[in-house]
Amino acid sequence: MLRFITTPGILSPKYCDTLSLRGHSITMILINTASRIREAIDNPVLTARIDDSLSDLKTFFMHPEFHALLETVGENGEFIDTINGRIINPGHCIETAWFILEESRYRGWDKEMLETALTILDWSWEWGWDKDFGGIINFRDCRNLPVQDYSQDMKFWWPQTEAIIATLYAYEATGDEKYLKMHNQVSDWTYAHFPDREYGEWYGYLHRDGSVAQPAKGNIFKGPFHIPRMMIKGHVLCNEILSGLSGTENIKL
């Protein structure tokens, strides 16, 4: 994988060969991929790859002028004022935040990583949380212009699961009640709207108001991954939080 992403010409351009771009997706997922492999193989190449991704996120993708982590930027992190260049995917960014929080914890709650993760989480929550209907919205434009994707104001299952994990990690890291409140907000909304009370599993696709857009439980995008990962990670984090606190009978998790 490293050879593919570092050798010019192996991968065909995602958009066109006349415009050099950087994508958030490969940058963020390599943090998680490398950390998972590192649990079995303690190779310094893996930690170096995580360091490179963290550096790229801060150098190229985090844009304080918009309080946003952008999905697509120029080769040197330039803001590209097009539909693709302005896109914010709040759920994707929130997922990135908990990947960094997890790595921060691995390194003894590294302060710089922690601050980066919390900044991304705070920015992305502000863009993503629907103040009118609740839930994490699909896409936003960093200049508040119309978003191209037709599902832009829908609520998909996976951004909610990422937010449930990220807010628990943030609360574990900081003890800040703000993150516990955010966790309760997204968890309560998610469990009120996505589970199918009659047949089980979760719906994947809701309208903005939380009503079911289509009832498929699985398709080429929605597979058996995000929901059990959230439940397992959530269970572990809750136990860690409760074991580290006194008076936990008053804390709602």
From TrEMBL:
Name of the featured protein: N-acylglucosamine 2-epimerase
Q: Which family does it belong to?
A: Belongs to the N-acylglucosamine 2-epimerase family.
Which InterPro entries does the UniProt entry name for this protein?
A: 6-hairpin_glycosidase_sf (IPR008928), 6hp_glycosidase-like_sf (IPR012341), AGE/CE (IPR010819)
* UniProt-listed GO biological process terms: carbohydrate metabolic process
Q: Which PANTHER family match?
A: N-ACYLGLUCOSAMINE-2-EPIMERASE (PTHR15108)
- GO MF annotation terms: isomerase activity
Q: What is the organism of origin for this protein?
A: Bacteroides fragilis
The UniProt keyword set, sorted, is: Isomerase
Q: What's the superkingdom here?
A: Bacteria
List, alphabetically, the Pfam families matched.
GlcNAc_2-epim
